[in-house]
Automatic annotation (TrEMBL):
The keyword Disulfide bond does not apply. It catalyses: GTP + H2O = GDP + phosphate + H(+). Residues 248-343 form the CobW C-terminal domain. Belongs to the SIMIBI class G3E GTPase family. ZNG1 subfamily. GO terms for cellular component: cytoplasm. This is GTP-binding protein. InterPro entries: CobW-likC_sf (IPR036627), CobW-like_C (IPR011629), CobW/HypB/UreG_nucleotide-bd (IPR003495), P-loop_NTPase (IPR027417), Zinc-reg_GTPase_activator (IPR051316). It comes from the Bacteria. It comes from Teichococcus oryzae. One of its GO terms (molecular function) is nucleotide binding. PANTHER family: COBW DOMAIN-CONTAINING PROTEIN, COBW-RELATED.
Length: 348
């Protein structure tokens, strides 16, 4: 497969009982999900029975919607290689959805997609979609650090069972999700079609629209000057100052002047090599010195995607670098000061 022919992969994750399977059943009937390969941990755990048509082999079945369903027996990279082989053999697959079990940490899966050379040749991460249950979501976030990670690294947050939740509970949950992940607006799962694809400007065919959304979501402010704005996630709700996840937070930095790639790249590599455990995810659209087109970067802990050159800046939008950091126990000032110092050194 050529670089452009890499299949986009959506990671569908979420709390136990949040309704991922119900959502998946519904999604697979949507027109735009034709030709999806679904990877699940075990067929038994996921109620796709009424969609099953024929068993192709032990770990793969064909679904009526023109989709393929495979189980992940242990090794994700191996399961993905099986899908790449099918595409080479002419099967019309256009995307992959990986459905994970309720409390899986999404980071190792993201690392496999980015760090495993064979996988990265054939697949590109399109986004992480996290399903949150409106009834139990707040309690799950309080108790489970994996649930906080799932919400923090999401590119799209979908809230299920909103009709069953009390309004005040719902308001608290939405506030909590915004604190953990300020760059993604939670959406309620209702009767309208739900998009879980085209979330990453580097992977999406409709790049300009996604790029606009992304820059808007990252809170890029209008006007001049170098902007640093913080959507704080320091909501210690008073009861327990040591709550494990009060330390996970996200913020966006933006820079009006073009950045020197050498300085920025050196600093990001150093940061993630030394503090990879603290940097859960970094995403950015960059305006680099000497480069007319936007460059997308994406890192998960100490693993980086090769930077992607995007076709063009969206018309009418200011050219500006926007970087989103999702970190744990890493003060924002450390990141800001590091970028400033390395960029200044690269320019001198």
């Amino acid at each position: 497969m050529q670089a452009e022919a890499r299949l986009p992969v959506t990671l569908l994750t979420g709390f136990l009982g949040a309704g991922k399977t119900t959502l998946l059943n519904r999604l697979l009937r949507q027109e735009d999900m034709q030709g999806t390969a679904v990877l699940v941990n075990e067929f038994g755990e996921i109620g796709l029975d009424h969609l099953l048509v024929e068993a192709l082999e032990e770990e793969a079945v064909l679904l009526q919607a023109g989709c393929l369903c495979c189980t992940i027996r242990g090794d994700l990279a191996q399961a993905l290689e099986g899908i790449a082989r099918r595409v080479r053999d002419g099967q019309a697959l256009r995307r992959v959805v990986i459905e994970t079990t309720g409390l899986a940490d999404p980071l190792p899966i993201l690392q496999t997609l980015m760090a495993d050379a064979a996988t990265a040749r054939n697949f590109v991460l399109d986004g992480v979609v996290t399903v949150v249950d409106a009834v139990n979501g707040l309690a799950t976030l309080e108790r489970q650090s994996e649930a906080v990670r799932q919400a923090a690294v999401a590119d799209r947050l979908l809230v299920s069972k909103a009709d069953l939740a009390a309004p005040e509970g719902m308001a608290l949950l939405l506030a909590r999700l915004r604190a953990v992940n300020p760059v993604v607006t939670p959406r309620l799962i209702d009767a309208s079609p739900i998009a879980i694809t085209g979330l990453d400007p580097a992977a999406a065919p409709q790049r300009e629209a996604v790029l606009r959304d992304w820059m808007a979501a990252a809170g890029t402010p209008e006007g001049g000057g170098a902007h640093h704005h913080h959507h704080g996630a320091h909501h210690h709700h008073g009861h327990d100052p040591n709550r494990h996840d009060a330390r996970i937070h996200a913020f966006a930095l933006s820079f009006d002047a073009p950045l020197p790639w050498e300085g920025l790249a050196t600093w990001l590599e150093m940061l993630t090599a030394t503090r990879g455990d603290a940097v859960l995810r970094v995403k950015g659209i960059l305006d680099l010195e000497g480069q007319d087109r936007p460059v997308a970067i994406h890192g998960v802990q100490s693993v980086w995607h090769a930077p992607t050159l995007l076709p063009a800046w969206p018309a009418g939008m200011p050219r500006r670098s926007t970087l989103v950091f999702i970190s744990r126990d890493l003060p924002r000032a450390v990141i800001e000061d590091g970028i400033a110092a390395f960029c200044a050194a690269a320019r001198s």
